[in-house]
Design a protein that fits this description.
256 residues, alpha/beta, 6-stranded mixed beta sheet, disordered N terminus
Length: 256
């Protein structure tokens, strides 16, 4: 009986020691449009470092607000510079870790079986392509993809004409799903999102000068684990990570 009790205590002690010695997960708050690329990069980082990554994907605006309210994130990755600037102004990120890592393009998508193979960026073409249906975009007042979409349509003189048909989603991936499921004939998303979903096709690409440059900044948060966050951000600039980002269609702006 005493031997059995000793064995149980020994196993419990070993279990506690293993738990204490295991690396703590790194929590990454990232823009929804990064999921397809960041998931495999995170797996590669864990394989190389032994540090598990716990990723939370949502609209950049929602994630920034959560961090401002005290949510426990180690790294923040935004789909535009404005939300990162907002957190930096509140001293909620470590400015010396900030990198402008990735770029993207803005495109118009349709469901794979939509009759249009290409769409001219003019009012008549949108009217035909929509056929009285909705234009799916991310929320245009706070979500980066929605703000880029509105800016592009305004630049081309299309916003006022199309605004009554705009259907806003909580983030760019939700807008993508509207089109993929046939709930909206057309949508405006990032090129990388369109490439990740076989149920949609790109029918037009907005000129780069029709909207602010699409830039993804990454940074360690002020309250997060500093050292593993720095290692993670360094890994994101490595050739191994760059290959994944480029395969997913991102332009890599920062290089190791």
């Amino acid at each position: 009986m005493a031997i059995a009790r000793f064995a149980i205590l020994l196993l419990l002690a070993l279990g506690v020691g293993a738990t204490r010695g295991a690396p703590q997960p790194l929590t990454v708050f990232a823009a929804a449009s990064l999921k397809a690329a960041l998931d495999p990069v995170n797996r590669d980082f864990t394989a190389a470092s032994g540090v598990p990554v716990r990723a939370s994907y949502a609209a950049s605006s929602a994630l920034a607000k959560q961090i401002a309210q005290g949510a426990p994130a180690d790294v923040y990755a935004s789909a535009d510079v404005d939300w990162m600037n907002d957190l930096e102004s509140r001293k909620l990120i470590r400015p010396d870790t900030r990198i402008e890592l990735l770029g993207n393009r803005l495109v118009v998508i349709a469901a794979r079986n939509h009759p249009a193979a290409a769409l001219a960026l003019d009012a008549d073409s949108f009217a035909v392509g929509l056929g009285g249906g909705r234009l799916a975009v991310a929320e245009v007042t706070s979500v980066p993809a929605g703000r880029y979409a509105k800016a592009a349509l305004q630049s081309l003189g299309l916003w006022d004409r199309l605004r009554p048909q705009v259907a806003m989603a909580e983030n760019v991936r939700a807008a993508l799903r509207f089109v993929a499921r046939g709930e909206a004939p057309l949508g405006i998303v990032y090129a990388t999102d369109a490439a990740a979903d076989p149920e949609v096709k790109i029918v037009a690409t907005f000129p780069p000068d029709s909207h602010p440059a699409i830039v993804y900044p990454f940074a360690a948060t002020a309250q997060g684990a500093a050292e593993p966050s720095r290692r993670y951000l360094e890994f994101l600039q490595s050739p191994r990570a760059r290959a994944v980002f480029e395969q997913q269609g991102f332009a890599v702006l920062a290089r190791d």
